[in-house]
Amino acid sequence: MKRWLPYGCIALLAVVPFAPVPLYYLHLAILILIMGLICTGWSLMGKFGLVSLGHGGFMGIAVYPMALLWNHYGLTPWLGAPIGVGLAVLLGVLIGYPAFRFRVVGHYFALITLALGEVVRLSIIAARELTGGSLGMTPLRVQPITDVSWYAVQFTDKRYFYVIALVAWLGGLWAWRLVNRSMARSALEAISEDEVAAASVGIHVTSQKLRITLLSAAMTGLGAIMLGQYNQYLNPNSLSGISISLEIVFASIVGGMYTMLGPTIGALITIVFRESLRAYFGATLTGMAETIYGLLLILFIIFMPRGLWGFVVARFAHPTGDTSRLEVAATR
Amino acid sequence: MLTLRDVSAGYGSFQALFEISLEVSAGEAVAVIGPNGAGKTTLLRVISGQLPILSGSITLQGRSLLGLPAHRFIEEGIAHCPENRRLFPRMTVEDNLRMGAFIPTARRHFAERLDWVYALFPRLRERRGQLAGTLSGGEQQMCALGRALMSHPKLLLLDEPSAGLAPVLVMQVFDLVRRIRAEGFTVLIVEQNIQQALELVDRAYLLEVGKVKLSGTAGELKNNQFLRQAYMGL
Amino acid sequence: MGIFDFYLLETIINGVLFGGVLALLALGLNLVFGVIDVIWIAYAEIVMVGMYIIYYLNVVLGWPLVFAALASILGVGVVGLLVHALIISPLLDTPPINQLLATGGLLFFLQSFATLIFGAEFRNLGLSMPILQFFELYISFSRLLAFGTALVGMIALYLFLTRTYIGTAIRAVAQDREIMSLMGVNTRKVYLITSAVGGGMAGLAAILLVLQQDVHPFIGYTFGPITFMICVMGGLGNLLGGFLAAFIMSQIISIGSFYVSTELAYVIAFILFIAVMFIRPEGLFQRRA
What we know:
The structure holds 3 protein chains of 3 kinds. Chain A has 16 helices and 2 strands. By secondary structure, chain A is mostly helical. Chain A has one domain. In chain B, a hairpin with a 2-residue loop joins strand 9 and strand 10 (211-217). Chain B is 36% helix and 26% strand. Chain B is globular. In chain B, strands 6-7-8-3-9-10 form a 6-stranded mixed sheet, sandwiched between helices. Chain C has one domain (3-217). Helix content of chain C is 74%, strand content 3%. Chain C has helices at 3-36, 43-60, 65-88, 96-118, 141-163, 165-175, 187-212, 220-234, 239-259, 262-279; strands spanning 131-134, 137-140. A two-stranded antiparallel sheet of chain C has the order 1-2. Chain C is globular and about 60 Å long. The chains are: A mainly alpha, B alpha/beta, C mainly alpha. Chains in contact: A-C, B-C. The interface between A and C is large, with 50 and 50 residues.
């Protein structure tokens, strides 16, 4: 019974768009799946102690080239996307290789990635003739205008995007699972505990960290590409830089970065929570939703560092014993 | 003056000290000797309040020290000169000494105490403006001792003052401790140089795996057959 | 001397003056960073709190600017104290990254709280600061004032750290926190004082910023990242290093803005920071221990 549960859930998720779901909820579901993918990507690094405050950088460098190639050369996003993801991976190499080689860890790694996210954001703004600067840009509508264009990946019907996002998200979870089951996981855990000791028993610290960073960058870049393509709007402040980078970090933490579904749950909580508070307070109290959100973040990190889902898993799935590992990981 | 009764202590699930009883009288110099890992440093950490005890009692001049926060022990008159000296490397000698006189009672007498420490260790006066991290090993030990003396403690705890020093300097450090004794301070010293330590102190305790194995006057221990065989190779 | 060079000279001078503001900004963060070993990611937002305090007291309640400015120093000092007592202190024994993230939550909180109270509009004091003219050079008076205050703030902090017992203890904690209790120092108290002083420096920086720019809830993003970079580049807890790094960064930004564009100037500054971190992780001006 338990073995079939995941497949049942996937099947259920797959039929959602064909049920009479209000468009607004479908819209939220798409955003949650995409952010879930991005946060899952972030957590791959985060749970091994590589706390990046610059994942926005991977987003911006992936999505902008795709949109620009489409607008200027009519290159289909099916080709633009791999190019964008490739650029995100390349950026991962550029920052990751020297960082890991020179053993930049902890605070310093966080600050370097913070700078990276800003470099990408400011570069996009500086190239305002191409990118529209901080006003943002729109991918051109496919000509002649049709409701369904697979070539341009432009659909009037949200259900197409839902299915694409679902597939990508499942792919992200699959990658997470692969890493979790591989030898790399124990190597990375050893590294996050004691880098020098890990190196001394023959673990290649730099390459292990680099592989996980590249995977993370690719997932984040892919997420950004879907986000830009779905919204049909690109803005450097929401697709790069410190602001979105921190949002990714916090959604992952709220959900719990040590479990497979935690980051997605975090994305879900963040998006649903904000939307409902926004609906509740309306336009009268701008900022109220985020104020409560910020307060909750602080409380989460102090009282529930494993995140909500991590807490639930530790509490219910392993009521005896097995939580110790999570505890150790979470308090590091 | 200092009395430990049945003190047990440890780190997490690891117990390092088992029911230690120990006494230091005013004006006395007492050594705690023993092999590596016997719990000597732990014992000093317990006495200076760095490590809470699991059971037993610690009193100084009849006053219980239990439950006192670690930073209050020096105000009670216990100064602890830690292992490896632990000077503030990027501060001057004089600033290091100033930190030794941080507690209000010592601050009031800072100028005169400083003069007194400089008189005791004239070398420090020459080096007063130098960063402590740039001093030689012997000078660093001098500075560490001076720092601990700035509060005029009732009881001075010394953790392996000769560790890591060249043999010539080891003799010098013992000489410094002798000078401190001559000033009338009560000293509890942890040492691995058992022979030299026994030349210096009135009494000593031998610690093995967290328990007091032997105790007695320096004279008794120097002639103790077990100690001579096991630790002095005689 | 051609007219072009005059503009360049003006740029360089303005860069120096801008460096003063950056140096002052970095000062409080550097203190907290160096002593407690935590990064207040919300530091720029804490500065913003000071800017809003001045705006509110001066413009809304009509207090004289001087009193509003003093209230900023005190008020932000209290904020610093609270940040430590409520957020950092419960997390001191957890991994350092948790402290950084918790103050990230504070960043969101302060930004949105400011939006809640003051709205997203840009606010200013409605002052017009004079532009000074030296021959053909035009220098902004508010920048000159900021530079002067930065110097005074630096010197005051330096004297506090070197001439007082508690200041000496603050420096000592940064070097060896474990033995502080042997000196009779209550580390908790030192941390609280450090956080309050760090907050006070942020409050001082707020005064100078609010004189030259509008305040809005997201202003922290404009100077937050560069402030962190300066602190780390100068070497943690190295006040003089931070000061020098501030001037290097401000010159890059100033001259870069002059020749290319402001954004690319920042890009260059950030890339320089990343490069420095790879080559000298202990900062540009730190002696290797």
